[in-house]
Design goal:
This protein is α/β, with parallel strands linked by helices and about 325 residues long. It has a single domain (about 5-305), classed as 3-Layer(aba) Sandwich (Rossmann fold), CATH 3.40.50.1820. About 35% of the residues lie in helices and about 15% in strands. The protein contains nine helices and eight strands. It has helices at about 5-10, 25-40, 95-105, 120-135, 155-170, 190-195, 205-215, 250-265, 290-305, and strands at about 45-55, 60-65, 75-80, 105-110, 150-155, 180, 240-245, 270-275. An eight-stranded mixed sheet has the order 1-2-4-3-5-6-7-8, sandwiched between helices. Helix 3 (about 95-105) crosses helix 9 (about 290-305) and helix 4 (about 120-135) packs across helix 5 (about 155-170). It is globular.
């Protein structure tokens, strides 16, 4: 059963037929309009500021930092969703404010390069650079000196899971947590939920496959560097909290990843958000139940983020 407010959105805001050939400019414009239609008024936080994150000699990445309240807080680096094609700092501003408030954290949202202009792994490389920038400057950014957590929704959840795997493969320090909201984790774009929710639930199976092809046209879908679910060994990865929507083509991606992480000894919490469809985390103004699901998610994550010992870094 879908939440009544979700059903209303499907019958009104999301009722337009899907175009035969997706138009990137139109998709991006729609993503930017969504907050005004569905998000509601921005939640108050103590401080919001933009910055440039540079690391490793690449071009700086634009980021936006949200601080819930004064004092040192855990850091979390967040990647927005949008199929690696749409989405921006502005489209996910309200969601990042909610995360900063409910987690009592400093959230660093990243404005990564998008497809089709920039193909895989450009977005992941930008996330990588921003994460290391936050790691190196934690205290200067208001962090507590510990490594930043990683988070993201949809394609941003893919980037968060991918970065955790990349850091582990390199033998580097790891995030204390990966917070994944209805993540895209398998470029093969198959599984039961792709059939069960192929149409009629906002994100369609056809559209999700187009996003994968647009983002990574030159990479095999079973390459672990692209598909986190294709990794043979998931042991040693950071604890994960994974939220899945009840009716979503990506539902099985989240369910399978949670199951595989647990099988490899990784601590994982699965939050099954009943009545929801893909994208609900940005619709808290139109769907009150979505705000409640986010509150539950943050209640699970907050204790993991606030486990502090001595700062891992001694200076800015």
């Amino acid at each position: 059963m879908l939440d009544p407010d979700v059903r209303t959105l499907l019958d009104t805001v999301f009722a337009a037929p899907e175009p035969e050939v997706p138009d990137v400019a139109a998709l991006r414009a729609a993503a930017e309009r969504a907050p005004a239609l569905l998000g509601g008024a921005p939640e108050e936080v103590a401080d919001v500021r933009d910055a440039l994150a540079g690391h490793g000699g690449g071009a700086p990445v634009r980021v936006r930092l949200y601080r819930a309240s004064r004092g040192r807080k855990p850091l979390m680096v967040f990647a927005h969703g949008g199929g690696w094609v749409t989405g921006s700092l502005d489209s996910h501003d309200r969601l990042c404010r909610i995360l900063a408030r409910d987690l009592d954290a400093v959230v660093c949202a990243i404005d990564y390069r998008r497809a089709p202009e920039h193909r895989h792994p450009a977005a992941l490389d930008d996330f990588d650079a921003a994460w290391h920038w936050c790691l190196e400057r934690s205290l200067a950014l208001g962090g507590d000196g510990a490594p930043p957590a990683v988070a993201g929704d949809s394609s941003g959840g893919h980037l968060a899971a991918s970065l955790a795997q990349r850091l582990h493969a390199r033998g580097e320090v790891l995030p204390p947590l990966q917070l994944l909201l209805y993540p895209a984790l398998d470029a093969q774009a198959a599984g039961g939920s792709y059939g069960a929710y192929a149409t009629g639930h906002n994100l369609t199976a056809r559209m999700m496959r187009w996003y994968w092809r647009t983002y990574a046209p030159d990479t095999l879908p079973d390459d672990p560097g692209l598909s986190p679910l294709a990794a043979a060994d998931l042991s040693g990865l950071p604890p994960a909290i994974i939220a899945v929507a009840a009716a979503d083509v990506l539902r099985d991606d989240g369910l399978r990843y949670a199951s595989r992480l647990a099988a490899h000894g990784v601590a994982v919490e699965l939050l099954d958000c009943e009545g929801m469809i893909h994208g609900f985390a940005r619709w808290t103004g139109a769907v009150p139940a979505a705000r409640k699901h986010l509150a539950r998610l943050c209640a699970l994550a907050r204790p993991l983020l606030h486990r502090r010992g001595e700062p891992a870094l001694s200076g800015a």
